[in-house]
Each structure stands twice: as structure tokens, then as C-alpha cells.
Amino acid sequence: MKQEQVVLRRYIQDLMTSMTTTNRQHSEVVSSNQRLTFVQERLDNMDSQVKEVATAEVGRRTHLLRRRQQPRYD
After folding, report:
1. Which domain of life is it from (predicted)?
2. pLDDT tens, 6-65?
């Protein structure tokens, strides 16, 4: 009986160690996912800002081109 208890106790300790490791890995995955979400949001914001700047620049250049093409009456 004593030997069975030792084996069972060892099995329970191994199981607890395994669960602790699994929980730690799960926490790391969640943390990594949160960081990736943050990075994705920043990239989306950068995309939006680049589009706004590009649109403004196209508008500015179009305006300058139209001004240049208008006949001048000096």
C-alpha cells in the first residue's frame, strides 16, 4: 500500500507540474496575442494616416496642375 501511495503521489506531482507548465504557456500565448493585436491596430492606424496624406498630396498636386494649365492673362 505504501508503494502505491508513493507512485500515486509522484503521479499527482507530475500532473501538477504539467498543469503549471500548460497554464504558463497559455498565459504566454494570450500575452503574445494581445501584443499582436496592439501591433495590428498600430499598423492599421499607420495605413489610415498614409492614405490621408496621400489623398491630400494628390489633391494638392491636382490643384497645382490645374492652375498651371489655366491660361494666364497678364
Report:
1. Eukaryota
2. 999 999 999 999 999 999 999 999 999 999 999 999 999 999 999 999 999 999 999 998
The x, y and z cell numbers of residue 1, run together, are 500500500
- The cell numbers describing 12, all together, are 499527482
DSSP per-residue codes, 22-36: HHHHHHHHHHHHHHH
Nine-digit cell string for 61: 498636386
CA distance 45 to 49: 6
Q: What is the pTM of this model?
A: 0.56
Residue tagged 507512485 (cell numbers): 7
Q: Tell me the C-alpha distance between 31 and 8, whole Å.
A: 34
